[in-house]
Amino acid sequence: MADIEKIPLHASSQSDIDEIENLFQISVQPAAPVDSSSRRPPSPPRATIPVTPVASAAKSKGAPPPPPPPPPPPPSYPAANLDASSSSETSPAMMTGFGGGPGYDTLTEPVWETLKRDINQVFENLKNVVFPNPYRKDAGKALKDWDLWGPFFFIIFLATVLSYSASADRAKVFATVFAVLSAGAVVLTVNVVLLGGSIIFFQSLSVLGYCLFPLAVGAAICMVRDNKLFRSVVVLVTVAWSSWAVYPFMSSAVPGSRKALAIYPVFLLYVSLGFLVLANN
Amino acid sequence: MSGYSTIGGDVSGSVPAAAGADHVALQFQDSNLQTFPPTDARGKLTGSSKPPRDADDTFSRPAEPEQFGWHGYFNLLSYRPYFNVDTSDVVQRVGDSLVPFKGDFVEKTATNPDMYGPFWICTTLIFVTAALGNFAAYLAHKTSSAGDTHWHYDINKVSWSAGLFYGYVGLLPLGLYFVLKYLGVATGLVQLWCLYGYSLFIFIPTSFLSVVPVEKFKWAVVAAAAGLSATFLALNLRTHIKTASERWFLIVCGCFVLQLGLGLLMKLYFFTVQFS
């Protein structure tokens, strides 16, 4: 397997593969003379397309092989262990499962560990998206470990703050803000897809949610004072910050002649939310 | 037997190589994204008879029914041809909608009617009218002497304006489409949506101007905008259906009046402040 050319993995696959690799190192019994230090096979759904047909060489079963473009799923269990690393690497994994190896088990870790890991991830993603950092140019790299906890938290926080500081129809304010933000994120992503852009759906939802952070901060600050001028300044600053944070991601997703078509709705969403923050009392 | 829609799906791995018997069951349908050679049970890389069909030549006609079957309506990518516009196209169409006297909007957009414009103009209008309606109420409250009532932001304006504008632009062209079909006029639903959507653009600057707390000024501005918008709609509809049916005048007048009604409703609900 050492001589196949591969199209390089997507950046987000690498972390998954690292995790799998770590589990193998821990849990694989060295019964079969497995050359696992060489290049690993990619996890099946991700698209590394081997240019030379690997599977037909390895299988040698004589079945007429149209080399299937996605990498073949690991062959059946009792495959000969002279096979390349594919079968013996995945069968122990299938037998022990994720986190089944000795010494590394997310099932039995304390709850605080789990929570802390997610909270840390939220902070990391926040730093990557909203604050200036060297990854901003490469949009896909900036949020390769996307998650939806952060966006969920910010949407709930914004809706709660706005409904708390409203003097009438509090439930309606909460419902409207929540619906507008969540449906708005979905609609904005669909808009980019329909315009011919290429983005990953949930990654885009995640970025749009994280870019609400400045507005959430602004809403919290505006809750303190009702002076319209003060609020205008705060809203202006936070809307500008949110737009600046989301711009590289959205603009790199669509072809250049349609950039404004993709950016404008995001801007519309943030401005209307900012106006709501400003006018709420 | 209908074929399979192949967006992201790959059936060929399960094709028995020696089948050959029943080709009908294995119709690969071309999609916008992936280009499989069709109807060959032997596998994808052998015997590709025709060159892969490009996505571009599906844009001159709607792709959903012919290409995907009935489930194309649920597939997001089958709506892509309706968003095939650049920024300059949208700007130009918006500019055309402000000058209502030419009447050729429908012909200009006949080959490439888009739904981007209508949808985002409606959405902008929703937020703009809700926000500026509240702002107008706030200004009126401050400049008048009504210090007793405490002004609060009316969140209902957002939901009512959403219902009004999405409902108007969504349902009225649908109704018009069915009426025209009944009368035997050839027309496209997406073109009607496109026309109605762009005709609403002028209400956006109108909302900005209606913030001024002078009642007569508000009425004048809204009347002018509604008149322009309805004229745009009526003239374009007239050129579109004039030759096709004798009842065109009735239909055009009906649409004109309904557009004026929309302007009136907008003014009364969003920009009129009652002091009780």
UniProtKB/TrEMBL annotation, chain A:
It is a multi-pass membrane protein. Residues 28-101 are annotated as: Disordered. Keywords: Membrane, Transmembrane, Transmembrane helix. The keyword Nuclease does not apply. One of its GO terms (cellular component) is Golgi membrane. Pfam families: Yip1. Residues 138-275 form the Yip1 domain. One of its GO terms (biological process) is endoplasmic reticulum to Golgi vesicle-mediated transport. The chain crosses the membrane at residues 148-166, 173-194, 200-222, 229-250, 262-279. InterPro entries: Yip1/4-like (IPR045231), Yip1_dom (IPR006977). It is found in: Golgi apparatus membrane; Membrane. Residues 63-77 have a biased composition (Pro residues). Residues 83-93 have a biased composition (Polar residues). Residues 30-40 have a biased composition (Low complexity). Belongs to the YIP1 family. This is Protein YIP.
TrEMBL record, chain B:
Keywords: Membrane, Transmembrane, Transmembrane helix. It is found in: Golgi apparatus membrane; Membrane. Pfam families: Yip1. Coiled coil: none annotated. InterPro entries: Yip1_dom, Yip5/YIPF1/YIPF2. Residues 103-263 form the Yip1 domain. It comes from the Eukaryota. One of its GO terms (cellular component) is Golgi apparatus. The keyword S-adenosyl-L-methionine does not apply. GO terms for biological process: vesicle-mediated transport. The chain crosses the membrane at residues 118-140, 160-180, 192-211, 217-237, 249-270. Its main location: Golgi. The keyword Transmembrane applies. It is a multi-pass membrane protein. Belongs to the YIP1 family. This is Protein YIP.
